[in-house]
Every structure is written in C-alpha cells, then in structure tokens.
Amino acid sequence: MLIAPSILSADFAKLGQEVDDVLAAGADIVHFDVMDNHYVPNLTFGPMICSALRKHGVSANIDVHLMVTPVDSMIEAFADAGASMISFHPDASIHLDRSISLVKDKGCKVGLALNPGTPLYVIEEVLHKIDYVLIMSVNPGFGGQTFIRETVDKIKRLKQLIVDKRLSVAIEVDGGINESTIKSAYDAGAEIFVAGSAIFNAKDYKQSISALRDAIKK
Ligand code: DX5
Ligand code: ZN
Q1: Among 31, 95, 135, 218, whose Cα sits 20 to 30 Å from the Cα of 129?
Q2: What is the residue range of 109's domain?
Q3: Number of domains in the chain
Q4: Record's NCBIfam families (predicted)?
Q5: Confidence bin at 114 (pLDDT 50/70/90)
Q6: How far apart are CA 167 and CA 23, in angstroms?
Q7: Is the CB of 196 under 6 A from ligand 1?
C-alpha cells in the first residue's frame, strides 16, 4: 500500500520543506491537486510548482490530479514540468482516448479520476489502456471533507471488474482518508491512499503516516 500526501493541505509558505518532511516521514508519492476554478469551485497551482519542487530536489513520484477542463494543455505542461503520474476526470476531457494517449506519449503513468456520482461504466472501454483509477471518496474541490461511505462498494465493484478483465490497473482512493476510513478502502481493494488533512494537520508526520499504515492491519 502506498501513501500519497496531498500538498493541498500543506503549508505553502514552506512547501519544499513540507514535501521533504513527509517523504522523510515515510510517504511514497506526492499528490498534486490541480484546480482551475472551472471544473471545480477552487483554484490551486500550476506546473511551475511541479518544476520548482523538482529543482528543489524532490525525486519521488509526483502524482498530478487534474481537476481542470480542458485537460490536454495541462497534461503537456505538467509532464514537461516533471510529473510522474497524471490523472484527469473523463468528463473534463473533450476526447478521452486522445487525452489518455497524450499522457502516455509524454512518458507518464495515466489515471482516470471518477467523482462519487460518476459510474464505473464511463471507463469500461478504456480500462485496459490506463495504469490506475482514482476513486474520489469526496466531491472534488477541497481538502478536509468527510469520506463518502458508498465509495467502498464502488471500489469493490471496480476491483472485481479489474480481476474479471485480468488487468493490472491500480486503485487509488482520494478524499477523507484517515485512520478510521482507510481500512474499509484497503479491504475493498484500494492500494494507493491520498491523504491531505489526516497527514498535514498532524504535528508529527511520521506518526500520522504510520497510523494510516497501522490502521489497515487492525
Ligand atoms: C479533493 C482532492 C483531494 C483532497 C484530499 O478535491 O482531490 O486530494 O485534497 O484531502 P483530504 O485527505 O483532506 O480529504
Ligand atoms: Zn486529489
């Protein structure tokens, strides 16, 4: 299981240090929540933050979650800025197959992000072309929201679909992940866990990250 702290909840006044600290505290991937105040009612940051962190010396995987529309220009910009993984929302892309190919042509792992209200069939025809599915367990736009429990059943159904099709697509879950919600997502089949407030709101990042890892063993 991989832990991906969302920098949306980090202290942006010292972002480089925050990312260094969570990685030193045991995080695996850095989750970038990119919002355009169009696809979601919030505005965050652009590709320059990604290149700045690469220049700062961050070598870990940077998992860019695009909550923007249109997506293609941001796919290119974040790939050029050092993204390792890029996910986007199918309903935000003008041409799903073309956007998936663009991420792959730029050398990044490609994921599709599904809002709680978006059914699994939206990605059925392209599931074999992608590396991971980002299951949103909150409605996108903000950190610190409550985990939507119905998501657990959706993760189980997605896992079954992946098994039935004999694919090796990873399941990433995003939103409201903390010590009391992570185990249900893990047991349902999720392998990558985005956590923003559960990690960055804690004083001790090592403790909050190990608490997430320990919680799945209970
Ligand atoms: C919401 C973002 C999530 C969010 C997670 O639109 O995609 O990544 O920042 O934050 P928490 O873990 O606090 O719910
Ligand atoms: Zn996210």
Answers
A1: 31
A2: 2-217
A3: 1
A4: PRK05581.1-4 (NF004076), rpe (TIGR01163)
A5: very high
A6: 30
A7: yes
- 214 catalytic per annotation: no
pLDDT tens for each residue of 170-212: 999 999 999 999 999 999 999 999 999 999 999 999 999 999 9
| 177 Cβ inside 6 Å of ligand 1 | yes
Q: How far apart are the first and last CA of the chain?
A: 15
pTM: 0.98
Tell me, what CATH number does 49's domain have?
Answer: 3.20.20.70
DSSP 21-37: HHHHTT--EEEEEEEBS
Residue to probe by mutation, ligand 1, list 3, 33, 34, 40, most atoms within 8 Å of CB: 33
Q: What pLDDT band is residue 92 in, cutting at 50, 70 and 90?
A: very high
- Asked whether residue 218 carries a pLDDT value surpassing 90, the answer given is no
Instruction: Compute the C-alpha angle 194/154/109, nearest 5°.
Output: 45
Does 142 count as an annotated binding residue? yes
Distance CA 82, CA 67 (A): 18
Instruction: Please answer whether residues 15 and 206 qualify as being in contact, where contact means their C-beta atoms are separated by less than 8 angstroms.
Output: no
Average pLDDT over residues 78-96: 98
Amino acid, single-letter form, for residue 208: S
What pLDDT, on the 0 to 100 scale, is given for residue 116?
A: 98
